[in-house]
Each structure stands twice: as C-alpha cells, then as structure tokens.
Design brief:
Elements lengths: L11 H44 L4 H72 L11 E8 L3 E7 L5 H10 L4 E7 L4 E3 L15
Antiparallel strand pairs: 1-2, 1-3, 3-4
C-alpha cells in the first residue's frame, strides 16, 4: 500500500506495520529482477565480442588480421620477385644467344665477302692476263711489226699484238691480197725488218 494514500488518522502501530510489509515486499521482489539485469549485462558484454569476431573487430583482432594480410603480401612479393629473377635470367640468356648468333653471322658474312673479293681479284688478274697478250706491249721490250707487200706497187705495215704468230701475219697478207709479207720489230731506238721477207728479224720481239 502506498503510504501517500493512507489516512492521516491511521494509528501509528498500523502505519508502522504497513511500512514494514511494504519494505519486505520490495526486498522480496528485488532478487527476481536481478537475474534479468545480469542477463542483459551479459548480452551487452558479449555483443561487442560477437561483432568483433564477425567484422575483424579492433585491437587484438585487427592485429591478427593485419598479420595474416602481411604474410599474404609477403608471399605474393616473394613469388613476384622470383618470377622477375627468372625472367631476367631468361632475357640474359636470350640476349647472349642472339649476340652469339649475330657474331657468327657477321663472321660468316665477312668470310664470304673475303672469299668473293679473292675470286674477284683472281678473275680480274685472269682478265688482265688474258688481255695482256692482245696488246702491242711497250717500245722498251719491242713491238711486233707485220708488213704486207704487193710487188713494187705498195706496202702496208702495222704494229700487231704480242700474241700474233707468223701464220697470223701470213693470213693477213692473203686477206689484203698481198703477194708477200715481212716481219719486223719496233723499239724506241729503231725499226728492224727481216731480210729476206718471211725471215725472223733481229731482235725478233717474240716472233716464232
């Protein structure tokens, strides 16, 4: 009973008994509400832990998750570093192989060029050697002279190449309708004619 609604003329003994009964009722009801309050406190104390487990939380949970992330990154970085090292080794080996191949190619090309130059030089020497007998030569060594005679009417003489023979001079006489030929040798000092005709002059300048 609420003491505020108690009549003022209530005897003191009755008022004291009612107050005692009210205090006893209040104390009897208190243990029933305490477990509910403790259960609410336990839920409140457990709720942050549940959120921490779900979301990674803070404090110790953040540290554990960070360490796991760091270990994962370290493993990834190690794998990337190993891949880069292997790629660098491959590129180095490939560059060495390519450089060796280029060096061999350059050496082969140089050898082919040298061989080609030698062949060209030999061909040029052979051509010069082949052309040399077709030239008249120099007056210092003497030049061959072939003269065609037609009785006492006319005579025709010319300097001929070094590779001419007596037979060639005789053929030239027939083609020009001459009756005889005469061999000669021209030098820087004089012209020497064979006598009689068809003989070999002295010096002979290589007539044979």
């Amino acid at each position: 009973m609420d003491m505020r609604y108690m009549p003022e003329d209530t005897p003191a003994a009755m008022r004291s008994a009612i107050e005692s009964q009210s205090m006893y009722s209040a104390s009897a009801q208190q243990p029933q509400s305490q477990p509910q309050f403790q259960h609410a406190q336990q839920q409140q104390s457990q709720q942050p832990q549940t959120e921490y487990r779900r979301g990674g939380g803070s404090g110790g949970g953040t540290k554990g998750g960070g360490e796991m992330d760091n270990r994962g990154w370290r493993r990834n970085l190690t794998a990337i570093a190993a891949l880069i090292t292997a790629l660098a080794a491959f590129l180095t080996a490939a560059g060495t192989y390519i450089n060796a191949g280029n060096a061999n190619t350059t050496a082969d090309k140089a050898q082919r060029d040298a061989s080609k130059a030698d062949k060209t030089s030999l061909a040029a020497a052979a051509a010069v050697s082949g052309l040399e007998p077709a030239t008249a030569g120099s007056l210092e060594e003497g030049q061959k002279l072939c003269r065609v005679l037609q009785g006492k009417s006319w005579r025709d003489g010319m300097i001929v190449p070094k590779n001419w023979t007596i037979r060639l001079c005789e053929d030239y006489m027939r083609k020009t309708e001459g009756t005889d030929y005469q061999l000669g040798c021209a030098t820087k000092d004089n012209v020497y004619l064979a006598s009689p005709p068809r003989a070999i002059p002295t010096p002979n300048c290589g007539w044979n």
